Every structure is written in C-alpha cells, then in structure tokens.
Amino acid sequence: MTAPFINPVFDIALSYQKTAALIAALKLDIFTKIGGDNVSLDDLQVRTGASQRGLRILCDYLTVIGLLQKNETSYSLPYASRNFLDKSSPLAMGAFVDFAAAQETIELVFRDPASYVMRGGSEGLALMSPDHPIWVRYARTTMSFAGAKAKRVAKFVESFSEPVYTVLDISAGHGLYGIEVAKAFPDALLTAIDWAPVLEVTKENAQAAGVSDRLRTIAGSAMEQDWGSDYDLILLPNFLHHFSFETCTTLLRKIKASLIPGGRAIGVEFVPNEDRISPPMPASFAFWMLATTPEGDAYTTSDLDKMARDAGFAGATTRPLAPDPDSLIIFET
Amino acid sequence: MTAPFINPVFDIALSYQKTAALIAALKLDIFTKIGGDNVSLDDLQVRTGASQRGLRILCDYLTVIGLLQKNETSYSLPYASRNFLDKSSPLAMGAFVDFAAAQETIELVFRDPASYVMRGGSEGLALMSPDHPIWVRYARTTMSFAGAKAKRVAKFVESFSEPVYTVLDISAGHGLYGIEVAKAFPDALLTAIDWAPVLEVTKENAQAAGVSDRLRTIAGSAMEQDWGSDYDLILLPNFLHHFSFETCTTLLRKIKASLIPGGRAIGVEFVPNEDRISPPMPASFAFWMLATTPEGDAYTTSDLDKMARDAGFAGATTRPLAPDPDSLIIFET
C-alpha cells in the first residue's frame, strides 16, 4: 500500500484549465441545453453542434470539477449548476463569468504575475479609459446576483428610524442598489454617478423599475465631480476595493461632508476576516485587486473602521449579506 | 441563520488566478526563500526585493489555496510545499509548472475555449516545429519527478524472467526511463529517439549516469524514422496521449513488429478509470490534451487494451505508479 497522492501543485498549476472549461461550456450554452434533462452525448451534439469528442472530454472534465453529473454515459446538472449556470435560472451568473474571466483580465493577470507582486500593484483595468466597454459589461453582468443583494440592502435601509429622501449612488453601475432604495421610499430622489456609457445601463434599469422620474445622473469620476450635499444616504457598492486606504479615506471624507447630520453611507464589499485568509472568497479577492488595479485591496472590518474614523465618521460596522459572500458596511456619522 | 454559501462557480471562474499566484511565487522563489523558516513580511521583503503590499496579498492568497501556512503575521511552508516547491527538495517541481502553465499553453487554452470543443481538438503545441524550445523545456522540467518513476519502471523490468539487452526509448526526452533500465542491465544497449535538440538533454543525462557509451540516438519523428528491430524492450513514456486512437494503433503495430517474440513495450500514461471522471488528475488530463493537441486524449485501460490487440499485441495491462498519479502500461507480445 502506498499513501494517497496528495500534492496540491498539479491541481493549482493546471487550475487555469477549469476556468477555460467553464468559458467553453458557457459559450456553447451547455448548461442551459442540458437544463433539467439527463442528456447523452448524441443529444448534446445535436443541441450544440459541437464535436462528440470535444463534448465528451469537456463534459467529463466539468464532472470532475463538480459542474456536471455523469450518469453512466449521459450528463445532468447538479443543483449549483442548475441554479447558477442554466440561463433560465433567475440566479444565472454566466454573465459574471464573462466579466471575472474576461479575455482582457486573464491576459493582464498572466502577462507577468511576478511584476505586480514586485511593485505591489498593476496598471491595467483601473487605468482603462472611462468609456472602455468593460465597465458597461461589468454593470450588465453583475446584475443577476446584485438583484437579491440590492433588495436586502434596501430592506436594511427601511429598518432605519427615519425615512430617506435623498440618495446618492456612487459608481452606480446597473444602479440596482439605489433603485431598490428608491422603490422602498416613494418620495426619495436618487442621484447616480458613474461613467457616461454606464449610466445608460442605470437609466434603463430605473426605467424598468418605474423610478426614472426620480433619477438624476452625474457623469464622471466620483473623485472629481461635485455631487452636491445634504444626502440622507450615500451608497458606494463595490467601490472602495479599487483604491488604496488613503484614497478611500479621502473619498469617505468627501462623502461625510455631503451627508446630513445622522446620515449614513453604505458600502457593499468582500470583507475578509482580520486574519485575511478567511473566508476563502473574500480573502482571495485581494489577489484579484493586486493583479488588476494599481492600489486596490480587500479591506477588513478594522481597516474599514479606521478609514471611516480617519475620514470623520463615528466608525464603520459590517454585516453579512449571506448567502452572498459580500458584506454590507455601514458608515455612521 | 442562512445556509453556507456553496457556489462552485466563483471558485472556478477565478481559478486561473491560483495558477497566476503560483507562477508569481515561483518566479520570486518565495517557497525556497521561506524554506524551513517562519518568515515575517519584513524578512520576506528583504529576501525577495518585492513590495510588502504585494507579498502580503500574494502570501495570504497562497495560504487560502493551501500552498503556505500563516502564523499570526508570518508565513511557513506546509508539507506539500516543502516537498514539491522548495527548490532545495529533490522532488521540487517548479520546473514542471513552467511547462504545465507555460505562457504559450495558457494563451492556447484561453484563446477560444469553445473552438476546440466544437472541433474536437486544437491546433497548437502538437503542430509546433520539432525544434520549438518548449520540447527541450518539457524534457528538462519533467525530470525532477520522472526520476523516481523511472527507477520504479526499471525495477519492474528487473522482475522479468529474462534480462534485457536491447532497449528502444521512444520520445525519450530527458531519457531517464531508458537510462534507469540501462543502469539496471549493464549489458543493455539503449537507442533513444526524439527531436534533435531534445536528444542533447538525453545525452547529458546519459553522460551523468555513466551510460553514454551504450547510447545510440535517432533524431526525428517516431512515426517516420526507421529505428531497427529485434528489441527486447520498447519504452514509450508519455507519448500515446498526444495522438488519436488510430494513430496510437499504427504506432503500436510498428512497435510490435520491431520487438523480439516475447518482447514487451512499456508505456507511462495518466490512465483514468473506465468512467473517465476518476481519479481527478488522470481524468482531467483529457481536457489538457483536447485544448492543446489535434487528437490527443487520456486513454482508459480498456482503450489501451483494445489498441494493443488491434495492433497485434496479446493485450495491455496497467499498474499504478503510486504515489505518482500515472500508470505503467505493459503491452505483451
């Protein structure tokens, strides 16, 4: 008897192929084409037009990595794939994969991985022009799973003792966070700030939600634009992680100055524990930021509290947004 | 209470970043520079010259994926990294990562993942010219963990009832399989066939092992070259998986014709179980071949037995090479 072969190096050296297989399966729409069925290779060939050999090898590999189930010689979807990869599911996140594993990002991450560790940051996406199509893609592709989170954020805002009349949504993107708050408070006026092409997505979604008559947009950088003052609530979802601690503090100071007394700012971020190595998803997120931004990071609760205090807030607290891996961050004046 | 967040899609969409982090760590030689120590970020900065911020984020991520251990604010190597990633270990396989996650391969795998599934194969590495430097790199980078396997193969050959006098090593590469057999049988003459630049590596290793006076080399393709006949033993390690079932059969027919009666051919391959979805490493290997060769595959024991019989052998049997994930395949005349 020999000991089982336990060597994580093979798996990690080759784990880029898992992402490639997922991209292939999404492009061929394999998850949707399997759906609730138990599908043979012959059938899958008819449904996708791909080679039987390619499908057999791809589907076996997807089974190994847990995205398909194999039943003798046919394939079906396990719960997670049914829920998150079949396009007919409301939680389908294939579009997120298009963003997280976009050709541009993969090239950036692999061009010279040692270089961004050496320098402590990357050029790359953060330096892309405001009208780069990736920002519009980001706004569109994160909508599917931001929807439920945005409702949970709005529910939390409803728990405040005072109603909300003026809301600023920084880096609005799809705009769902501000839109859900506007839906919860029918008198609230919503101001959304983002790059001009992205605001077209925000406007579409506001229109669809019936709140477009209460939406004002400001095109440009949150760092540079004058967005006015006396807001009851300022939202900054998925924004702080792109920047250094110092830049976040500067931004939070500007936010603090434009809130009414007692007003709040609310962020949504991947917040790792203080050990920075758990839970896996938020802790791993820091590496993504290292590889694709000049100074971005995944901030812990104590980081966020410190930057809040440095900026003049009373402090910052975090709450889980489970089952999502993100946290809600509340900056109290 | 909410259910824990179980969604494999995030992990797989982003698993390319695990490979990138491993590449960065190997380039910066972080595993060797930590070695048996428990190293703070300050120390690691001195040892690598990299930014503290980059090192902190990289080392935290390496901890999340199991390649480092974090102890409060310093880092040490878990057993697997000590064994397989610290360059001072005899089993260090960083060089293999240079091959398995070579820039060329990653580009090929990500250029258009749906295309090789559609077509059932890829152009790419298999069509690279014989003098492409990747083949020499492959020969050099697979030596560290081929060494122990080659000794196990030679041990197996020693268990035969008759000694071996003439050995042909097809696609010799580093040549270690043939060299170990030549060491075990001091009268054996060894013929190695591979691309001319690769045979320089074979010759170097034969020299170092003291068997170069018994080595003859034939430069060129195993499919095309006349390699002579009446061999007692023909080795074809890590070769069949590059080709279609039919091409393997053709090659095996040529091999069968150049063995003495009672002679044997021996392969080393990743052999998945008949279900083709286990064990994970050999089963996953088929996707690598799909993405990087026109017709390659990971063959099961029954595939190998069938191609052996089609080629005129009595059959093929497989034996584990544990703790390595590969199997030894014996083709009996």
UniProtKB/TrEMBL annotation, chains A, B:
PROSITE patterns: SAM_OMT_II
All residue ranges annotated as the O-methyltransferase C-terminal domain in the record: 150-314
SUPFAM superfamilies: S-adenosyl-L-methionine-dependent methyltransferases, Winged helix' DNA-binding domain
InterPro entries noted in UniProt: COMT-like, COMT_C, COMT_dimerisation, SAM-dependent_MTases_sf, WH-like_DNA-bd_sf, WH_DNA-bd_sf
Domain O-methyltransferase dimerisation span(s) in chain numbering: 11-85
GO biological process: methylation
Record field: transmembrane: none
Gene Ontology molecular function: O-methyltransferase activity; protein dimerization activity
Active site positions, chain numbering: 241
Keywords: Methyltransferase, S-adenosyl-L-methionine, Transferase
Protein name: Class I SAM-dependent methyltransferase
Organism of derivation: Bradyrhizobium symbiodeficiens
